[in-house]
Amino acid sequence: MGRVGEPLIGVEDMETPRWAEGYAATANAGLRAVAAKVPATVALAVRWAWRASPPLTLLAGVVQLAAGAVTAFGLLATADVFTQLLAQGPTPERVVAALPAIATVVAAGAARGLLDAAVAAVQGALVPRVEQRAQDDLHAAVLRVDLAAFDDADFTELVERASSEGPSRIRSCAQDTGDLMASLVSVSAAVVSAGVLHPVLAPVVLLAALPRGWATVRSARLMFASFVRMTSARRRSSVTRMLITGRDPAAEVRAFTTQPVLLGEHRRISDLITAEAVRLERDRAVVQLVGRTVSGVGTGLAYGVLALLLYAGGMPLALAGAAALAMRTAGQSVANTIYEINHLYEASFYLDLYRSCLDETRRRSRPPAAGRLPGDPAEITLTDVSFRYPGQEQQAVNGVSCTLRRGEVIALVGENGSGKSTLAKLITGLYLAESGTVSWDGVDIATVDQRELHERVAVVFQDPLRWPMHAENNVRIGRLDRPDPGGARLADAAARSGTDAVVAELPGGWSTVLSREFQGGRDLSGGQWQRFSVARGLYRDAPVVIADEPTAALDARAEHAVFAALRGLAGTRGDRITVLVTHRLANVKHADQILVLEQGRLIEHGTHEQLIARGGTYRELFTLQASAYTDEGDARDTVPA
Ligand SMILES: Nc1ncnc2c1ncn2[C@@H]1O[C@H](COP(=O)(O)OP(=O)(O)OP(=O)(O)O)[C@@H](O)[C@H]1O
């Protein structure tokens, strides 16, 4: 594994994600299932349109129908014109007799023009609203999803694809549905007109349509199958693309001279995807060619039937022109219809994706909980709590029981991967225990409304989010609705976290946008960002404070200040529960409780003195760290036996 020439990511073929399995089934579905798909897609598009704007949807339906009716009327009037012109008698009289019918054709043409403009205007107003609505629904649903879902790669890919493709496809579905309605009305108008001229002509005008319909369906199925085959390759391609083009990886990619490896790997995956795309387009072109050829034969047959009717005297010659016109209109409208069906059928795939995403978000959201907390927690109790990340065999937290009390600083320590951050998230309800319970003042937090819970928590994350907004809101986002007349609270949080010194250096002070994505925006160093994260946590002013490695990137002076601030939070007013995750054991000496984790299990528990006296893992880790600052012998001397 991991040598030159071998797959860089380490996996070549990933399992088909659960949400893509449905498409594999679609790709292999029979024609009947496919035929059922488009009406279902149309029904969905209409429902979305209705939700976006009922009056505009109604109006769209009315103008489409009116446009179709006018087309039919125009066709029949044209037949009348031909009948009058080709009737017996002197030419001037025939022309005069045809004048009313000609006027009707002209009026129908003008009305059709006006109605087409009305259709375009109504669609133009409706369709963007549909997209906005679809986007909004998805965003609202994703924001309700449980944090743990984001640890599942299948889910995050589904969300990414659904949010990037879904709303725009739904928009085009709404557009295509309108256009499909228009072309269907035109087809009906042409078929009815042909049928009025001679009943045999009604089915004949559709002869050319069937082969094209077959080609459309076949071609879309080829596309589905290819999409499913390439799911894994596309995911690998996007990962390597991100490594090549992203800002975060840029430094390490260069420092480790991995450019040729990455480029080679991306080319290798792209070759696979390109070969598949070329194969797909070739197969689709062949299918389309067959469809068009057979369709051409169908058109020839239709005209043959017309010729036979005229030859056998089944239809007067005067109506032949009108019949040919109806056939042309039918041919054109059928072509339009097939084009729209094709679009809708292809889009139905993304609609399914979007709907799967909505279903998944529902499945992965916590059911609404009505439970309330009696107030800010005085005691948090964990009873035999276990948790496993999605798709992982091993538990990240395994059977942990402990009690955290108001006024205490509780330190979580242990080696990398021992479960500290996970446990911290379980305490706050960001993750829910797989088994066991976390209760705040005796109330199981699984039964409590999440907002009610999280309102009472301030978290300083190990890898804080660099909020792309100005410096002031980077702190205030901790609790945007907190009243702060005169900015005293902002200033206090900034002073205690050392953020004030960072802001003093910024060209626009608190108004400086902290993101390079925007003009005049600034980026910060890792430690400076961490100061902002601490300030945010302090500003939130919550009764439960979780500080997960809050000082890993801080210099000694800032670290000292931050720990003093955190101790102050718990100590001075004694009204908070402060959970501190850290590897800097010198900072946990004064904690009221130290919980030592190993492979997700709580292996030691007590105060610094108790744990040192016990002589277990904590003492070993503490001694190791202490020895880095002093001679080994001295370090042992400082540790009470
Ligand atoms: N998102 C995730 N998906 C799957 N497994 C995870 C995820 N996050 C953490 N783990 C695993 O869960 C276990 C506990 O991780 P956790 O982050 O809680 O450890 P930690 O003690 O905070 O580590 P560190 O000191 O390195 O921050 C580890 O085995 C880790 O590999």
From TrEMBL:
Membrane topology designation: Multi-pass membrane protein
Annotated TM spans: 58-83, 187-210
Family annotation (SMART domains): AAA (SM00382)
Pfam family, one: ABC_tran
Domain of life: Bacteria
Entry keywords, A to Z: ATP-binding, Membrane, Nucleotide-binding, Transmembrane, Transmembrane helix
UniProt keyword annotation of Chloroplast present: no
Claim: Ribonucleoprotein is one of the keywords in the record: no
GO cellular component: plasma membrane
Location(s), subcellular: Cell membrane
Domain ABC transmembrane type-1: 58-346
Domain ABC transporter span(s) in chain numbering: 380-624
Gene Ontology terms, MF aspect: ABC-type oligopeptide transporter activity; ATP binding; ATP hydrolysis activity
UniProt xrefs under PANTHER family: ATP-BINDING CASSETTE SUB-FAMILY B MEMBER 10, MITOCHONDRIAL, ATP-DEPENDENT PERMEASE MDL1, MITOCHONDRIAL
Full protein name: ATP-binding cassette subfamily B protein
Organism: Pseudonocardia hierapolitana
